[in-house]
Specification:
By secondary structure, this protein is an alpha/beta fold. The chain has 4 helices and 6 strands, in the order αβαβαβββαβ. It has helices at residues 57-60, 79-89, 96-101, 132-140; strands at residues 74-78, 93-94, 110-114, 124-127, 129-130, 144-147. The chain is elongated. The N and C termini lie far apart (83 Å). The mean pLDDT is 92.
């Protein structure tokens, strides 16, 4: 094999499809667009989801679900996280500002303390909500709970 006799693999090179170049090309006159109708005109674009007149999927499938506009969304913080925070930062009073400063919740989030893990430190915790198990565990460890 030499550079002078290299050729592309059979079938890898394909001629461009040149439309509107006379009857002899087989793609003259209507240029492969058929006769009349929107699809034969320039500037035509099919609507997204159009299925040729068949009822489109987004209309065949029933609407479902429900979004409660009155839902109150809380950012969850668990007891094990608060215990770790109390140990490492040596904090006895934990509030939303402390949690924001340590990157546990976002600035405008409502905070709810949940009961995963254990807490041994007697800390004062103030948040927007507490689960029953979290509240009992904090008070059992000698801490206090304040709902904002």
């Amino acid at each position: 094999m030499e550079l002078s006799n290299l050729t592309p693999a059979k079938g890898s090179i394909k001629k461009n499809y040149r439309v509107g170049r006379g009857y002899g090309s087989g793609n003259g006159k209507t240029a492969g667009r058929g006769h009349k109708g929107a699809q034969s005109r320039s500037g035509y674009s099919r609507k997204a989801g159009f299925e040729g007149g068949q009822m489109p999927l987004y209309r065949r499938v029933p609407k479902g679900g429900f979004k409660n506009i009155n839902r109150v969304e809380y950012s969850a913080v668990n007891l094990d996280t608060l215990q770790q925070l109390a140990e490492t930062k040596n904090i006895s009073e934990i509030n939303v500002e402390v949690l924001v400063a340590n990157g546990l919740v976002s600035k405008h989030a409502l905070v709810k303390v949940l009961g995963r893990g254990k807490i041994n430190a007697a800390v004062q915790i103030s948040a927007n909500g507490f689960s029953e198990t979290a509240k009992n565990a904090i008070e059992a460890a000698g801490g206090t709970v304040t709902i904002i």
